[in-house]
């Protein structure tokens, strides 16, 4: 499914023009947040198990192994989610690249019109969000 995300761009006459970014950039973020919520819920359940039922955890040898396996699964999915987050970020960067935005503006398609991007948007904090 594709979303059209509207944003306003000024044209040469000082009026604003509505452009639409085409694409679905929400899936990686939704996966990352869902994994975070499930990780939090599992952590709370494991904490209750460790603190309230400590003797059960110590006596049953299958319970620590199951906990270890679930933790490994969460670690793997967290790595996948971080990669998906990075892919989503690169897609957003590609869609908001100044050259892409200029190409989408009809006012810049004239033969006597010169459009330039000005400053490139800073994506440093977005890059850090993927690394951390």
From TrEMBL:
It is a multi-pass membrane protein. One of its GO terms (cellular component) is synaptic vesicle membrane. It is found in: Membrane. The chain crosses the membrane at residues 31-53, 65-85. InterPro entries: Marvel, Synaptophysin/porin. Keywords: Glycoprotein, Membrane, Transmembrane, Transmembrane helix. Coiled coil: none annotated. Residues 1-132 form the MARVEL domain. Its main location: membrane. It holds the Pfam family MARVEL. Belongs to the synaptophysin/synaptobrevin family. This is SYPL2 protein. It comes from Eurystomus gularis.
């Amino acid at each position: 499914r594709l979303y059209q995300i509207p944003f306003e761009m000024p044209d040469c006459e000082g009026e604003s023009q509505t452009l639409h970014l085409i694409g679905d950039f929400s899936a990686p973020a939704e996966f990352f947040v869902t994994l975070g919520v499930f990780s939090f819920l599992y952590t709370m359940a494991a904490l209750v198990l460790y603190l309230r039922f400590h003797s059960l955890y110590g006596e049953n040898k299958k319970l620590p192994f199951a906990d270890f396996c679930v933790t490994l699964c969460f670690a793997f999915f967290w790595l996948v989610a971080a990669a998906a987050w990075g892919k989503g970020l690169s897609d957003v960067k590609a869609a908001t690249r100044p050259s892409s935005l200029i190409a989408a503006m009809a006012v810049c398609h004239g033969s006597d019109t010169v459009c330039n991007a000005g400053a490139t948007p800073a994506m440093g904090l977005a890059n850090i969000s993927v690394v951390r």
